[in-house]
Amino acid sequence: MTLWLHILVLGLLASLAGALWRVWHGPAQSDRMMAAQLVGTGGVAVLSVLAALQDWDLLVVALALAVLAALAAVGFVKAQTPDSAGDPEETPPPTGGDRRSRAVRATAHGD
Amino acid sequence: MSLTVFAMTGASLVGLGIYGLLALPQLLRRIISFNLIGSGLFLFLGAAGARGEAVDAVPQALIITGIVVALAASALAVGLVVALARRSGLVVLPDEANPR
Amino acid sequence: MTALVIVLALPLAGALAVIALPVRAAVPVALSATALTALSALVLAASVWQGGPVTLMVGGWQPPLGIALQADGLAAALIVMSALVVGAVAMAAWFEMAAARAGPRAAFGFWPLMLLLWGALNAVYVSRDLFNLYVGLELLSLAAVALVAISGTAQALVAALRYMIFALAGSLLYLAGVVLVYAGHGTLDIGLLSARSPAPGDALALGLMTAGLLAKTALFPFHVWLPPAHASAPAPASALLSALVPKASFLILIRLWFEAMPELASTAALLMLAGLGAIAVIWGGVLALVQSRLKLIVAYSTVAQLGYMFLVFPLAGGDGSAQPWAAGAWTGAMFQALSHGLAKAAMFLVAGICIAAVGSDRLGDLRGLARALPMTGFAFALAAITLMGLPPSGGFTAKYLLMTSAFAAGQWPWALVLAGGGLLAAAYLYRPLAALFTRDARLPVHPVARAWQGVPLALAALAVLLGLLSAAPFDLLQIGRPEPAVEGL
Amino acid sequence: MSLALDLALCGLILCVALGAVVGRGVFRSVIFFITYGLLLAIGWARLGAKDVALAEAAIGAGLTGVLLLTAHGRLRRMSVERAPRVGPNPMAATTGIAVALALGWAWFALPAPTAPDLAAALPLTGMGNPVTGVLLHFRAWDTLLESIVLLAALLGVWMLARDVDWHAPLGLRYHARPGGVLASFGRLLPPIGLSFGSYLVWAGADGTGGAFQGGTVLAAVVLVAMMAGVLPPPRVAQGGLRAALVVGPGVFLLSGLLAVALGMGFLTLPPAVAKPATLIIEVALTVSIAVTLAVLVIGPPDDKEPVR
Q1: Which domain holds residue B84?
Q2: A47: in domain
Q3: CB C102 within 8 A of CB C110
Q4: Is the pLDDT score of D226 beyond 80?
Q5: How many domains does chain B have?
Q6: Residue C22: beta bridge partners?
């Protein structure tokens, strides 16, 4: 059982490595951010398995990670709008030079 | 053996952070480098504290304190960087050291 | 013991109260906290004087579990000096940081930051725990950086950022040493460390901690952040930053090299520390000579004056600690720390008055100002006497003690540094003095309250008195001094 | 097998740190740093340091990440020029490698571990979790100063406001489309986060958790609610805000002074009342930490960004 759990964790870490590859390559900012969210989800999974392996208290850590991962996503979304405080959902679908398409274009340029 | 792995990781993180601090002029990246150095040191301390029979609780408490202090310092540094960019558009420090 | 607790807790409690209470209550609360703390500082010094070092085990836990705090003679002297400086700065800030003059933002932030800075200083002076010292240093640095940024110009922000980078790098280097010490010995208490069995990593730990603390003390070549930071802050903040903040990290250096790990003090390392100090004395003096703004001259002079304190390492450290001249050298360096604190605070407060009077601190704009503000001109002259090391000031006592020790130890090059540094100080302070006391006034002078003008005068007078009445502080500094050597000089 | 696991984990940590330092572009650096915090939290879990793992997950991965992300977004719009591109720096590399090697050498030169004996003293504190015992009893002075460090940083951040903005609400003006994903999320998260954060504080006495970790989770809740436009950001002049900032350190400090007044030492908590007193202090600290961290990330009062 322990052996299998170890192998499971290693497998999960390998999937994290895949997500990290996406963080490195991008190309758009949103690609990197989504990959980071994937790392967060994978991290929660790793911690859950580690909880079974070592100590059930680690589930609390996994839960904290799950709650806090959302924060980074919200911060990212907010940073995408021109005034850094709005919501990209607020504007209608892109029809030329409006806010959203500018935000998307800025995103596509990477850094 | 595992502890040695963590300690060596900590030492390497410190080295990486020092490189970033000295080589990268962009101020946000310097703040990230500071955090790498700090967490590398904490990893080293945590590994050292786990060597005994039971895990030593004192380093853990020190590390929690250190993480909070590092956050406070990072927040002030980030605030300074944003305020500087807001006033002058700079994201790196100007070279000359003296105000006129 | 109660006096020690009040000295530690009241500035912090005052800061919390100032933040929580309505803005109009800030100044009365801050001033009364300042007055009460200063009173307790005097009581504490008196009890150290009479009963020896005052020790406090926080929470009743002994090291290595708990944190020990101890006010020895040196800590008590620094606490009293800081109380005098903060008291004066608070009086000056009452005028200078008023909301009408400085704006509501600075008027809100200055008082809690001043009190937090003071609380951190007192905490650092008495702490015997290396990690607690780290937390105290961080509190000190953050409050200091915030005080630099308070002026809000882009220039001040650049200076604050540069300061922050040096302070953070210094903290992390220091922390690296602390980590190695705990990993090696399982304790962080300075007293327990002095009785430890040596470990191979100790030299590395001491080296890392020393490098970090040198960056925070702005010793050459880590001094580049200091002048712009100290010159950009509002004058009362500059007084705190220049007179007090570097003394905290210097004190930790003293604790490490003289108390925690004295056996690691090799001659080469001690000579290097003093050598850097000597370069700082000369280089800081030369740079002060070419500045055209009063605050920058005073700030570069801090770089130079801090250098003198490092002469203590080869004269009283390592093998030298058992020599007859060690006591003189040690006391001389500490006298330098005290008298420089008083005189430098006075000078920055004078700069603040000048800016209030003519709106600038350029030397050309200050011409003839002493005619309109004679008390201010006299205060600057008195403070200058201390910094030049002329008798009968505290600076003279400091340099006299250091110089006699240098000759007694046969290390005469330090005497040359002392003499050269004094000449340079005379040269770089001559220019602002000449401008102040010249006959032709350049700019119209706004009136400045006499009470405000009296504040730097009182500080500068204290710096001179320190030399006239040097016997009492001399004895206080000996209380709890590590390895009291044969009293020779 | 567990060695392989640790090797893989540490390898990932190093790769991510390398990505943050050598990768081109600030945004990539920031994202790598966020994942770094995540992986480091797993590393602490592997080392058996659950409380540290919790703190790293909440602070390192969460708050520092959002702090850097929002700052990067603002810098991108406000900066006149990009940071100059830099090549490899041999001097910096030599320094970094030298320090890393020195630390590595120090690890192998460490003498046998010695640790202070907590087991005898811990029952006197009434705490089952030794880390909480150290934080709130043995090293209470550290913890008190640390909570004040946060306050000093906040004052510093507030001092960065422009004078014209000083009376404005804190931070930028956040808004979200009513009924949109973000606004709904801003209503969904707070109940979950509130109960979880409070649980962490309560559990900290005997299990994993504590005031700092719980306070950070609560701060995250407050932040999301503010960013989603659910909770209006406060102003500096608001008395309630300023009282919340100081209540934690204030109660802690006053309890220490009360002990002096009662003839015990500074910050002494006698065993009879240790447990309830600690809980009161922890609750007050949590409130202050949550509010301080949230407004620390929101930033100084700011009206509108300059357009360049």
Answers
A1: 2-88
A2: yes
A3: yes
A4: yes
A5: 1
A6: none
Q: How far is Cα D75 from Cα C327, in angstroms, rounded to an integer?
A: 55
* Smallest Cα distance from C121 to chain B, Å: 17
pLDDT computed for residue D79 by the predictor? 76
Q: What does the DSSP assignment read for C293-315?
A: BHHHHHHHHHHHHHHHHTTHHHH
| A64 → closest Cβ in D16, D39, D57 | D57
Q: Is A97's pLDDT higher than 90?
A: no
Count of domains forming chain A: 1
What's B23's domain CATH number? 1.10.287.3510
Q: What angle do the packed helices C104-126 and C130-149 form, to 10 degrees?
A: 160
Q: Give the pair of three-digit tokens for residue D55.
A: 């703190």
**What distance in Å separates the CA atoms of residue C212 and residue C94, rounded to the nearest whole number?**
35
Instruction: Give percent of chain D with pLDDT exceeding 90.
Output: 62
Q: Give C440's DSSP letter.
A: S
Which secondary-structure segment (H or E) carries C487?
Answer: none
**Are the Cβ atoms of D296 and B1 closer than 8 angstroms?**
no
Range of the domain at A61: 2-79
Average confidence score pLDDT of chain C:
93
Q: Is the pLDDT of residue C28 over 60?
A: yes
Instruction: Write the pLDDT tens digit of every residue in C118-129.
Output: 999 999 999 999
Higher per-residue confidence, D48 vs A100:
D48
- Give the Cα separation of B75 and D65 in Å (integer): 11
ipTM of the complex: 0.94
Measured at the alpha carbon of residue D19, what is the angle toward residues B91 and D61, in degrees to the nearest 5? 80
CB contact under 8 A, A65 and D61: yes
CB contact under 8 A, D245 and C145: no
The structure tokens 């709650």 sit at: A67
Structure-block tokens of residue D153: 């940083």
| Residues of chain C positioned with their CB less than 8 A from the CB of D268 | 59-60
**CA end-to-end span of chain A:** 45
Cβ count near C12 (within 10 Å): 27
Q: Which residue of B has its CA nearest to D31?
A: B32
